[in-house]
Amino acid sequence: MKFGLKSYKQQKTINYLKKKQLLFIFNISNLNSKSWIKTEQTYYTNNIKYLKICNTLSKKAFEYSIFKNITVILNGSICLIYYNKTANISLDLKKFIKLNPSMLLVGIKLNRKIYSVHQIANIYTLSYYKNIRFFNNSLKQLLKLSYNKLGQSQSK
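Below the sequence we write its predicted structure tokens.
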């Protein structure tokens, strides 16, 4: 095993991908140093941790993980953002994405799967139980609607 800085950062990135259940993947190629300092300050005040990775290192780290399909999307430096304690998330999803408008959200890693921006467009919270409850209620409404229409068509 190499003991260089690049191999250390690559191994650290792979460990984050394996260990952290909730990761936000942001593209930060259009940030300058002043806006990055402001971003760091907002993350510190909201108790958010991050790992900033350069382009080649991120492609290598994602290439050797189970998320190798995402390497096509990665262009430029990325930032892996996470919470230390996922139970204490005080921000909802929409506010968190708009925390820094100059950073582009690429995806969210949630429980060994990466979801793109289009897949999470209609999710309001990151709570698994709230999303399942919402999905269950919408299925019940759809079933009632189809049952009512079937009953009306048979009565005619």
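The helical segments are 5-19, 33-45, 55-63, 93-97, 128-155.
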